Amino acid sequence: DCSLCGSQGIAGPRFRCIHCESFSICSLCEPQASTLHSEDHVFEIMYESDQDWSQVPLPVDTPVRIVRCNDRMPPDGLEGFLGAILRFRPLVRGSVVHRHAIA
């Protein structure tokens, strides 16, 4: 949500203050950021992803950044985390019994 106008779910680029723990604004509020927020703070421009990457086999060592997908947030503390692909583990839907049967 935008920390200035309060709009729910920022569509398009999100401007995240790298100095504040939880301060992000939408592109409509960005021109006012220097007057409504500390003018010496720097903003990181983040692009939200509506692509479901859970089934895309990325090569090992591909650099990644954990971001939200539409309205789904990553686990606490992981948003913005930088890392690399270690291995591909496909997401299997179904019951535990079903998953053990196809393993």
Question: Can you tell me about this structure?
Answer:
The chain is α+β, with helices and mostly antiparallel strands and 103 residues long. It has two helices and five strands, in the order E-E-H-E-E-E-H. It has helices at 33-36, 96-102; strands at residues 13-17, 24-25, 43-47, 63-65, 82-84. The longest helix has 7 residues, at 96-102. It is elongated, with a radius of gyration of 18 Å. The termini are far apart. The model has no long low-confidence stretch (mean pLDDT 79).
Low-confidence stretches: none
Number of helices: 2
Structural class: alpha+beta
Strand content: 15-25%
Taken in chain order, the helices and strands follow as EEHEEEH
Radius of gyration: 18 Å
Q: What average pLDDT do the residues reach?
A: 79
**Which strands sit side by side, in order, in the main sheet?**
2-1-3
Number of strands: 5
| Main sheet specs | 3 strands, antiparallel
Kindly report how far apart the N and C termini lie. 40 Å
Helix content: 10-25%
Overall geometric form: elongated
Summarize the structure in short.
It is built from two helices and five strands. With 103 residues, it is of the alpha+beta class.
